[in-house]
DNA sequence: CAAGCGTCCTGGTGGC
DNA sequence: TGCCACCAGGACGCTT
């Protein structure tokens, strides 16, 4: 599923095939994903040149002079650049036809994704309240420490709040908490400055590493899917409930925190 | 303002 | 073997 590293990988894979090229047409095979697809995708985008492909949080923006297509991959979405005669498969919801003779094809089985429009000079309201990028200078342990004071929600929930920091999903938060030795249940406001420093470092390191690994799938980005999933073997906590803790060997605990399955070591994480 | 929870959707899994 | 209930996931938006 596309987490921040996959979205960044998608952006990097897309950019060389898309930037500087003109969208000649848009084919919509269904009117809505999570929300109705913005009408500008068919009315305004065709004829425009894509100047840049940007990422904000898990959103991608295709910038043109007339505005930006704003898309989110949800949990099952993918974007591929394919030859124009490529067979349409299930859940290929949108094609942007490029002047290169290829298509930018959006596939999303579960339709948690979206394809919206951001007029020039505006910031879409979905992006307006987002917290800092985890790999930017704005994000560090001090920032987390300051923002968390007085918060009673579990630190896991706090870190997954996109207003606090973007791009930290259920998988990476589990890994970061494990690496930093912090219990996901601890109230955010009761976590010390030192431990937030460790958490921020863990988040940066894990996301950065995952992006590096995502880079390996860049090469065959255009070819049919089948990317191996770089992370599964490397995960310490996520998806390993009941298995021995990689550090102390005691069984990892699993429970729901904030409606989300959470795995952690009751011994190593305090 | 903060926190908690329902909701959207579909493929994959595990149980019977 | 077939069927079905259930779960996973991000994030909005409503309620408390």
From TrEMBL:
<feature type="active site" description="Proton donor; for beta-elimination activity">
    <location>
        <position position="58"/>
    </location>
</feature>
<feature type="domain" description="Formamidopyrimidine-DNA glycosylase catalytic">
    <location>
        <begin position="2"/>
        <end position="113"/>
    </location>
</feature>
<dbReference type="InterPro" id="IPR010979">
    <property type="entry name" value="Ribosomal_uS13-like_H2TH"/>
</dbReference>
<keyword id="KW-0511">Multifunctional enzyme</keyword>
<dbReference type="InterPro" id="IPR020629">
    <property type="entry name" value="FPG_Glyclase"/>
</dbReference>
<dbReference type="InterPro" id="IPR012319">
    <property type="entry name" value="FPG_cat"/>
</dbReference>
<feature type="active site" description="Schiff-base intermediate with DNA">
    <location>
        <position position="2"/>
    </location>
</feature>
<dbReference type="InterPro" id="IPR015886">
    <property type="entry name" value="H2TH_FPG"/>
</dbReference>
<dbReference type="InterPro" id="IPR015887">
    <property type="entry name" value="DNA_glyclase_Znf_dom_DNA_BS"/>
</dbReference>
<dbReference type="GO" id="GO:0008534">
    <property type="term" value="F:oxidized purine nucleobase lesion DNA N-glycosylase activity"/>
</dbReference>
<feature type="binding site">
    <location>
        <position position="110"/>
    </location>
    <ligand>
        <name>DNA</name>
    </ligand>
</feature>
<keyword id="KW-0862">Zinc</keyword>
<comment type="similarity">
    <text>Belongs to the FPG family.</text>
</comment>
<keyword id="KW-0238">DNA-binding</keyword>
<feature type="binding site">
    <location>
        <position position="91"/>
    </location>
    <ligand>
        <name>DNA</name>
    </ligand>
</feature>
<dbReference type="Pfam" id="PF06831">
    <property type="entry name" value="H2TH"/>
</dbReference>
<keyword id="KW-0378">Hydrolase</keyword>
<feature type="binding site">
    <location>
        <position position="151"/>
    </location>
    <ligand>
        <name>DNA</name>
    </ligand>
</feature>
<keyword id="KW-0234">DNA repair</keyword>
<dbReference type="Pfam" id="PF06827">
    <property type="entry name" value="zf-FPG_IleRS"/>
</dbReference>
<feature type="active site" description="Proton donor">
    <location>
        <position position="3"/>
    </location>
</feature>
<feature type="domain" description="FPG-type">
    <location>
        <begin position="236"/>
        <end position="270"/>
    </location>
</feature>
<keyword id="KW-0863">Zinc-finger</keyword>
<dbReference type="InterPro" id="IPR010663">
    <property type="entry name" value="Znf_FPG/IleRS"/>
</dbReference>
<keyword id="KW-0326">Glycosidase</keyword>
<keyword id="KW-0456">Lyase</keyword>
<dbReference type="InterPro" id="IPR035937">
    <property type="entry name" value="FPG_N"/>
</dbReference>
<protein>
    <recommendedName>
        <fullName>Formamidopyrimidine-DNA glycosylase</fullName>
        <ecNumber>3.2.2.23</ecNumber>
        <ecNumber>4.2.99.18</ecNumber>
    </recommendedName>
</protein>
<dbReference type="GO" id="GO:0140078">
    <property type="term" value="F:class I DNA-(apurinic or apyrimidinic site) endonuclease activity"/>
</dbReference>
<keyword id="KW-0479">Metal-binding</keyword>
<comment type="function">
    <text>Involved in base excision repair of DNA damaged by oxidation or by mutagenic agents. Acts as DNA glycosylase that recognizes and removes damaged bases. Has a preference for oxidized purines, such as 7,8-dihydro-8-oxoguanine (8-oxoG). Has AP (apurinic/apyrimidinic) lyase activity and introduces nicks in the DNA strand. Cleaves the DNA backbone by beta-delta elimination to generate a single-strand break at the site of the removed base with both 3'- and 5'-phosphates.</text>
</comment>
<dbReference type="Pfam" id="PF01149">
    <property type="entry name" value="Fapy_DNA_glyco"/>
</dbReference>
<dbReference type="InterPro" id="IPR000214">
    <property type="entry name" value="Znf_DNA_glyclase/AP_lyase"/>
</dbReference>
<feature type="active site" description="Proton donor; for delta-elimination activity">
    <location>
        <position position="260"/>
    </location>
</feature>
<comment type="subunit">
    <text>Monomer.</text>
</comment>
<keyword id="KW-0227">DNA damage</keyword>
């Amino acid at each position: 599923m596309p987490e921040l590293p996959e979205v960044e990988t998608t952006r990097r894979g897309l950019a060389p095939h898309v930037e500087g090229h003109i969208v000649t047409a848009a084919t919509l095979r269904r009117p809505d994903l999570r929300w109705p697809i913005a009408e500008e995708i068919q009315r305004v985008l065709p004829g425009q040149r894509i100047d840049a492909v940007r990422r904000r949080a898990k959103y991608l923006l295709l910038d043109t002079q007339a505005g930006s297509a704003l898309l989110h991959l949800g949990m099952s979405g993918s974007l591929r650049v394919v030859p124009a005669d490529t067979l349409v498969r299930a859940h290929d919801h949108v094609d942007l036809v490029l002047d290169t003779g290829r298509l930018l094809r959006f596939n999303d089985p579960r339709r948690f994704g979206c394809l919206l429009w951001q007029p020039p000079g505006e910031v879409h309201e979905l992006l307006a309240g987002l917290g800092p990028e985890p790999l930017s200078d704005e994000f560090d342990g001090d920032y987390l420490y300051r923002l968390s004071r007085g918060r009673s929600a579990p630190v896991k929930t706090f870190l997954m709040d996109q207003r606090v920091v973007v791009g930290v999903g259920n998988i990476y938060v589990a890994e970061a908490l494990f690496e930093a030795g912090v219990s996901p249940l601890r109230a955010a406001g009761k976590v010390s400055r030192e431990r937030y420093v460790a958490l921020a470092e863990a988040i940066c390191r894990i996301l950065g590493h995952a992006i590096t690994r995502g880079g390996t799938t860049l090469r065959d980005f255009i070819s049919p899917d089948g990317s191996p999933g770089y992370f599964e073997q490397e995960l310490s906590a996520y998806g390993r409930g009941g298995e021995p803790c990689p550090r102390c060997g005691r069984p990892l605990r699993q429970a729901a925190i904030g409606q989300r399955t959470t795995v952690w070591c009751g011994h190593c994480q305090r």
